[in-house]
């Protein structure tokens, strides 16, 4: 990251002096005010999102007869509403973790390929190709996953369940393979791959040539050069890429909604990734046509609030990591 | 690249010592060479794996939806009066809705986004600037479904309005602002300070300097950012499901009634079982992907003419 | 400035594309080629009282296809009329009707007379209308028990066995209880996989009404729009139908049209009067046996799910059009009457059978037409 070009000049370090020197004081005030106002508007928007969701969630939460954080039930209507987010949190966690486990190593490897291994003529087209993955809308991923790609996951899931079915995480739950948390995670991985790749690529490209050539001069192979020079330098970048990818995976809606089978209320709890389920986002989108009473709407908004808080934390963490790295490189 | 030559001219130690515990970089053994080769293979393989889903998804969309786009009707007619079991009609109502909403979204988010970036680069100091910058990052990460819920809570629950296209654009604006801010910020930072100082030296006020010197210099870069931001929000479906139900007829009123878009057209027709509806799903998917690609390409193309290069 | 021009070019291109899109047309008359068995040709011969303008309705998605078919044939007969239907769900439709946003609502249950969430629907609707609101049964949607068991072309289920299957008590297709009512059919040892609707649905509610009405103690859950028992949840009718289609051993309850369109097996139902196949006729028979719970022209059908009448298929869902008996605006009344008269026309109703609905039996159709004629 460049810190030498901050866009600040010595003159405007003291804005009052600059104002006095200018011939358009009023213009400056208005323009400066507009710019500052826009900045404040952004702050206000984020604050309002939190406040509005909270305000509308609270009445429903007060009426809730079940433990909101621990209950697996979801029946927000009627006189005694009972709803909780345990299942949603689990579904969101599992799909996101699977997506990360696949997309982060793959994305880093692709970024290394683009920046370190690809022949010069291939490097740019390769980067553009991976970026194209981000241009496919979520709903198309879902439809494609369910109708075309899903059937090829059946044997994979069958194999895993057959060989490792005794592991609680992999037990057979009698759910069609393409509608499991596992497959939703795979599709999410494809969707966040371009983000992870793009950010990793950027930091890898910034590794100082001196570091790399130093390693090579010491007799390192290319891989060793990457291990001792590129990866350590890019580590904070990879972490923030992973965080941003995670943020995206947590909130991805349509693909998950289309793919996942929901669980029946009578089904026993299972840790298996071959189970069905719901994520926060898919539950909310699936209930979009049922926002008919304030009580019900409030329940979905409460789920949305939790999702907001979680993505807020993840993104804030990513930001802190990036800030740290900036501090190092300065 | 000279690094490759460096690689091959490094003296290698005889094979067999590779398993020795000495891990110094000076020696080169068969084991290390094998690892190096393995890494190379893994990287190439990773790229190949990443390309597979892209080719696959584009291929199936093209094969299954391509023929729909070749019919003139697709580009001239709506779905009015076409029941879901019948063939015919087009997607013009949805294409138009998507474009209208995109333009309105851009009109709302570009001024706010660009001005916020100007604030961050040209004015922002101290704690407030840090807070704004932080909030932009948070806004970047807000899931589209949360943005949609927020607008629903505001527009429908609080104000008691109907679900209309304008509410959708509000949600999309939330999602687009941070992309515009970030890309504009990058571009403004790249404008050399000498330009600003030269302008100040001539007695040009700061706001005029920004409007006439800084922003025009970074202009094409900013446009690129806007186009890429638009490309991102265009494929968003979650806000549409919550705020903008589908309709089969052409509608241009942002504040009254329903307005069709390509994502909601896909979402509607995917709940049908017969071939005509499925054809429309793939056709609309392809149209949407093409639109997004086109915006991406246009963005990159405009970016080439940028005066400031990173 | 060169760079500037490119920016302008880009914006010009964007604006241009919108202007281009502006030339689109809603006129699709004569362009719709008929696919599969769907047809409106029979319907277009039906007479129609035309109006000029737009009629807006919203509500149940269960009657969506029927409504679209009727609206299409109505528009064919009356070029100046547009009928819009927004299938957002029964609850949303009633809500919009009460709010005065739509001209009439479609709902898969009659307006509720008891308080629910602080609103008595009947009273609220009457207040909006300034006159009592009527429920007019219009579309009969049979619910099929659709299954995918290779090699089994004919399957009969009793309410008791169906309840146990959908409750997860019977888990294999070759279970003795199924075999006992299907002599002569070779049942495989496949696992039974139940698919249910993950969204709130009138189909779920009506199917559960049938189970609790006909299966007695075998079904312990109260009818509701949310599925309480076992299985794998899929979104909407298309989701459950797709689930069964792609899963050997799958079974679900789904609107007849989806079972037909996906070529799924449809089970015969034996309430005790012999196995009944799902046909338009057998559904009509069950509907005729229903009692009218409403007064005068307010037609609330009370279905007898446990009917033992021979040849009557008992699992069905009736969609009502909810209208004002006296509209504040006479023009709206004319529009509603014009379209609903067409919708209830025997020709139109008969055309619906091809797309998975059952026509209204003539005795009910007469009452419906009387009620529509009384709207003012």
List keywords for this structure.
heterotrimer; B: 310 residues; mainly alpha; MetI-like fold; 2 domains; 13 helices; globular; C: 376 residues; alpha/beta; nine-stranded mixed β-sheet; three-stranded mixed β-sheet
What is the topological layout?
The complex is a heterotrimer of chains A (about 325), B (about 300) and C (about 375).
Chain A: H1 15-21, H2 25-63, E1 74-75, E2 82-83, H3 86-117, H4 120-132, H5 138-149, H6 153-164, H7 181-205, H8 209-217, H9 222-251, H10 254-259, E3 262-263, H11 280-286, H12 294-329
Antiparallel strand pairs in A: 1-2
Chain B: H1 2-9, H2 30-69, H3 72-76, H4 92-123, H5 126-141, H6 144-158, H7 165-190, H8 193-201, H9 206-217, H10 219-234, H11 238-243, H12 262-269, H13 275-304
Helix pairs in contact in B: 2-13, 4-7, 4-10, 4-12, 5-7, 6-7, 7-10, 8-9, 10-13, 12-13
Chain C: H1 2-21, H2 41-44, E1 53-59, H3 64-77, E2 81-86, H4 90-98, E3 104-107, E4 115-116, E5 119-120, H5 121-129, E6 133-148, E7 156-157, H6 159-166, H7 176-181, E8 193-197, H8 202-214, E9 232-234, H9 236-245, E10 250-255, H10 256-261, E11 265-266, E12 268-270, E13 275-276, H11 280-288, E14 291-292, E15 301-302, E16 316-324, H12 330-344, H13 346-353, H14 362-374
Detailed description of the structure:
The complex is a heterotrimer of chains A (330), B (310) and C (376). Chain A is mostly helical. Chain A folds into 2 domains: 19-63; 84-329, Orthogonal Bundle (MetI-like fold). Helix content of chain A is 69%, strand content 2%. Chain A has helices at residues 15-21, 25-63, 86-117, 120-132, 138-149, 153-164, 181-205, 209-217, 222-251, 254-259, 280-286, 294-329, and strands at 74-75, 82-83, 262-263. In chain A, strands 1-2 form a two-stranded antiparallel ribbon. In chain A, helix 3 runs antiparallel to helix 4, helix 8 packs across helix 9 (222-251) and helix 9 packs antiparallel against helix 12 (294-329). Chain B has 2 domains: 2-70; 74-304, MetI-like (MetI-like fold, Orthogonal Bundle). Chain B contains 13 helices and no strands. The two termini of chain B are 22 Å apart. In chain B, helix 4 packs across helix 7 and helix 10 (219-234) packs antiparallel against helix 13 (275-304). The model of chain B is unreliable at 1-22 (pLDDT under 50). Residues 31-45 of chain C have low confidence and may be disordered. The chains are: A mainly alpha (330), B mainly alpha (310), C alpha/beta (376). Chains in contact: A-B, A-C, B-C. At the A-B interface, helix 1, helix 2, helix 3, helix 4 and helix 5 of A face helix 1, helix 2, helix 4, helix 5 and helix 6 of B.
């Amino acid at each position: 990251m460049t810190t030498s070009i901050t866009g600040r000049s010595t003159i405007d370090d003291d804005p009052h002096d600059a104002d006095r020197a200018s011939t358009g004081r009023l213009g400056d005030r208005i323009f400066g005010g507009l710019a500052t106002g826009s900045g404040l508007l952004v702050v206000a928007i984020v604050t309002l999102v939190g406040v509005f969701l909270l305000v509308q969630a609270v009445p429903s939460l007060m009426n809730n007869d079940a433990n909101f954080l621990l209950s697996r039930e979801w029946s927000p209507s009627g006189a005694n509403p009972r709803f909780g987010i345990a299942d949603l949190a689990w579904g969101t966690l599992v799909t996101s973790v699977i997506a990360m486990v696949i997309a982060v190593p793959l994305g880093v490897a692709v970024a290394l390929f683009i920046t370190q291994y690809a022949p010069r003529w291939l490097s740019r087209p390769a980067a553009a190709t991976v970026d194209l993955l981000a241009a496919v809308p979520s709903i198309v991923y879902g439809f494609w996953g369910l109708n075309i790609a899903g059937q090829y996951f059946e044997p994979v899931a069958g194999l895993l369940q057959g060989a490792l079915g005794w592991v609680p995480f992999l037990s057979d739950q009698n759910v069609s393979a393409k509608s499991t948390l596992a497959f939703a995670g795979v599709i999410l991985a494809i969707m966040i791959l371009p983000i992870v790749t793009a950010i990793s690529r950027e930091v890898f490209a910034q590794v100082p040539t001196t570091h790399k050539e130093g390693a090579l001069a010491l007799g390192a192979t290319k891989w060793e050069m990457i291990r001792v020079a590129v990866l350590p330098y890019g580590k904070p970048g990879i972490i923030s890429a992973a965080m941003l990818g995670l943020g995206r995976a947590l909130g991805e809606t349509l693909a998950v909604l289309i793919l996942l089978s929901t669980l029946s209320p009578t089904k026993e709890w299972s840790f298996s990734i071959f189970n069905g389920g719901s994520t926060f986002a898919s539950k909310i989108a699936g209930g979009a046509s049922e926002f008919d009473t304030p009580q019900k709407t409030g329940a979905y908004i409460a789920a949305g609030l939790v999702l907001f808080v979680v993505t807020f934390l993840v993104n804030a963490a990513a930001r802190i990591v990036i800030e740290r790295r900036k501090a190092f490189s300065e | 690249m000279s690094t490759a030559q460096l690689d091959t001219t490094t003296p290698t130690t005889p094979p067999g010592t590779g398993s020795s515990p000495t891990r110094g970089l000076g020696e080169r053994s068969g084991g290390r060479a094998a690892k190096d080769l393995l890494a190379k293979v893994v990287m190439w393989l990773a790229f190949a794996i990443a390309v597979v889903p892209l080719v696959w998804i584009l291929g199936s969309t093209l094969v299954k939806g391509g023929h729909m786009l070749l019919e003139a009707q697709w580009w001239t007619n709506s779905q009015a009066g076409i029941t879901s079991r019948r063939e015919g009609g087009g997607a013009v109502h949805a294409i138009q809705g998507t474009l209208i909403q995109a333009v309105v979204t851009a009109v709302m988010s570009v001024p706010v986004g660009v001005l916020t970036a100007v604030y961050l680069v040209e004015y922002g100091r101290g704690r407030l600037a840090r807070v704004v910058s932080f909030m932009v990052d948070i806004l970047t990460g807000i899931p589209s479904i949360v943005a949609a819920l927020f607008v629903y809570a505001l527009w429908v629950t609080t104000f008691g309005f109907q679900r209309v296209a304008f509410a959708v654009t509000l949600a999309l604006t939330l999602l687009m602002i941070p992309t515009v801010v970030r890309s504009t910020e990058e571009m403004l930072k790249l404008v050399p300070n000498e330009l600003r100082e030269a302008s100040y030296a001539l007695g040009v006020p700061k706001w005029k300097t920004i409007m006439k010197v800084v922003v025009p210099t970074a202009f094409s870069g900013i446009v690129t950012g806007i186009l890429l931001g638009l490309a991102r929000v265009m494929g968003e479906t979650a806000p549409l499901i919550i705020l903008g139900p589908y309709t089969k007829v052409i509608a241009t009123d942002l504040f009254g009634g329903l307005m069709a878009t390509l994502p909601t057209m896909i979402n509607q027709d995917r709940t049908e079982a017969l071939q005509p509806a499925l054809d429309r799903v793939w056709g609309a998917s392809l149209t949407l992907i093409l639109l997004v690609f086109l915006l991406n390409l246009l963005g990159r193309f405009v970016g080439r003419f940028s005066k400031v290069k990173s | 400035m060169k760079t500037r021009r490119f920016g302008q070019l880009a914006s010009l291109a964007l604006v241009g594309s919108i202007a281009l899109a502006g030339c689109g047309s809603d006129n699709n008359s004569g362009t719709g080629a008929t696919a599969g068995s769907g047809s409106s040709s029979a319907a277009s011969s039906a007479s129609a009282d035309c109006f000029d303008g737009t009629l807006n309705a919203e509500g149940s998605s269960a009657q969506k296809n029927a409504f679209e078919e009727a609206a299409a044939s109505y528009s064919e007969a009356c070029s100046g009329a547009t009928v819009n239907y927004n299938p957002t769900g029964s609850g949303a439709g009633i809500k919009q009707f009460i709010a005065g946003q739509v001209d009439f609502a479609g709902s898969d249950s009659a307006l509720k007379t008891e308080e629910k969430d602080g609103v008595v629907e009947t009273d609220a609707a009457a207040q909006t209308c300034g006159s009592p609101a009527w429920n007019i049964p219009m579309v009969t949607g049979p619910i099929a028990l659709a299954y995918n068991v290779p090699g089994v072309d004919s399957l009969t289920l009793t309410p008791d066995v169906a309840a146990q299957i959908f409750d997860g008590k019977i888990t294999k297709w070759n279970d003795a209880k199924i075999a006992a009512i299907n002599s002569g059919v070779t049942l495989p040892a496949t696992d039974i996989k139940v698919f249910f609707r993950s969204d709130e649905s009138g189909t779920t509610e009506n199917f559960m009404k049938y189970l609790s009405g006909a299966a007695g103690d075998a079904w312990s859950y109260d009818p509701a729009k949310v599925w309480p028992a076992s299985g794998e949840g899929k979104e909407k009718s298309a989701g459950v139908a797709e689930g069964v289609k792609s899963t050997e051993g799958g079974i679900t309850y789904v609107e007849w049209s989806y079972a037909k369109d996906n070529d799924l097996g449809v089970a015969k139902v034996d309430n005790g009067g012999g196995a009944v196949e799902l046909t338009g006729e057998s559904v009509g028979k069950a509907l005729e046996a229903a009692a009218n719970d409403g007064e005068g022209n307010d037609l609330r059908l009370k279905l007898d799910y446990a009917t033992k009448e021979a040849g009557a298929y008992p699992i069905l869902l009736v969609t009502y059009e909810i209208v004002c008996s006296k509209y504040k605006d006479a023009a709206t009344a004319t529009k509603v009457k014009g379209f609903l008269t067409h919708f209830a026309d025997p020709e139109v109703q008969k055309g619906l059978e091809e797309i998975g609905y059952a026509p209204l039996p003539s005795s009910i159709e007469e009452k419906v037409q009387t009620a529509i004629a009384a709207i003012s």
